[in-house]
Amino acid sequence: MLSTLRTLCLKGIDGKEVSAEVYIASGLPAYTVVGLPDAGVKEARDRVVAAVRNSGYDFPAKRITVNLAPAEIRKAGTHFDLPIALGVIAATGRLGKEPPARLKETFFIGELALDGRLRPVAGVLPMLLALKGRGAAAVVPEGNAAEAAVSGVDCLAAASLKEAAAWVRGECELRPCAPAAAPQGATVSYPDFSEVKGQAFAKRAMEIAAAGSHNIILVGPPGAGKSMLARRFGALLPPMTPDESLETTKLYSVSGLARAGALLANRPFRDPHHTISDAALIGGGSSPRPGEVSLAHNGVLFLDEFPEFSRQAIEALREPLEACTVTVARVRESVCYPARFLLVAAMNPCPCGYLGHQARECNCTPVQVQRYRAKVSGPILDRIDLQVQLSAVKYADWAGLPSGESSAVIAGRVLAARQRQRVRFGREQANAFMAGAELRRHCALPQGASAVLETAMNRLGFSARSLDKILRISRTIADLEGSRDIRKEDIVEAVQYRMLDKAAVPAVAI
What we know:
Layout: E1 2-11, E2 14-25, E3 30-34, H1 39-42, H2 44-54, E4 63-69, H3 81-91, H4 101-105, E5 106-108, E6 111-112, E7 118-119, H5 124-129, E8 137-141, H6 145-149, E9 154-158, H7 161-168, E10 175-176, H8 200-212, E11 216-219, H9 226-231, H10 242-254, E12 269-270, H11 278-282, E13 283-284, E14 289-290, H12 292-295, E15 300-303, H13 311-315, H14 318-323, E16 325-329, E17 334-338, E18 342-347, H15 366-374, H16 378-382, E19 386-389, H17 395-399, H18 407-425, H19 436-442, H20 449-460, H21 464-481, H22 488-496
Parallel strand pairs: 3-4, 5-8, 8-9, 11-18, 11-19, 12-15, 15-18
Antiparallel strand pairs: 1-2, 2-4, 6-7, 9-10, 13-14, 16-17
Helix pairs in contact: 2-3, 8-18, 8-21, 18-21, 20-22, 21-22
């Protein structure tokens, strides 16, 4: 007795079609799953046995073999419970002598409780997107109904195995999946930038970072406002486009964080603790999962106390900062996750935090300072576009009333700059991601700017990558000013944001 059902699995954040074949043969009772299953799939046996019996069906005391094809793709997760259980019921003839059309034409996804109820699972949205445009239908748990609805696939919601089996036999109708009433995360709000007193230079740098999606690091003593600026940064970013929202929601669905069932409306703001492992930050595990850099895709990754992260975790940021993707390679599989995030890092100038402070003395030895700074290597710093040195807030600034611009005003300029970039590139792309050909086409040097860049490379030791980043930053500054061409003053301002640890070097001549 053989029955075949259709289901889906995940390969990274992409759905793949899987055939669940259930074969029941005479012999000693046994249950075997083949097709490269993980532990969660193998454990389905006990859930399926209890769910089938508690749904009013007999579970055959025979030799049962479950094959999940194609066998070269690793199968992970608990969503295979429903197709396997229906396959067992169909193979015993309880759904009819001939498999009903609904059984052959529909994709089934769901985890079973021991009493036969269907529980929501992670990754429903990316799995269903693999069916888009194929005219196929799917049955999902009620808990995934809202998430399934945004996929654009014809989906039905079932509450239990018994209900799904009755629908297959044509004895009842299932409810069509409906989207959630409001976008997930629509009520998220950020503190206002006007609350940050002083630090005009840092505020300007944050505006440039938001306008061009440039990575930024803030260095200053405790209490200078580094974390305040970073936690208000999300208010400056433009809204996500539908494509960005869908792509980000897929990542959250794979991670089991989007079960509320709606497209993400707000750009992610991820703030992991510095004790995080490199696998949790970048992604990985025996069954690879997205890390924080991927969960921050199309949003912000804030790393406070940057040098306190492990050296291995910090160095692992090199490739994502350049390639905007993360490839997790394992012996049996290799998956690629998108990771186009905006890095905001914050750190103290030394272990005690008061190196260069106007009023407090630093208690660190030169060796301690060097060891502390060495935790953030040169290659990592070179990949961070904006490097901003903050000083302690003055009493006059602290005692005065907030007088800075509000987040809404700054965000308006950022949005206008992003719109200029959209027109320039003909697609959604920020200046920070300009490739070599685009850099030459859109960042022509104004008269006199070559001497500035030559001095920056020869006297300040800037790398070729640093000069490219200066050009990208200059292009963003010009966009904020509404200028069609880059001006010399834009280049000079951009150089100032690459001057971290260059205080002892003579300034660039204008």
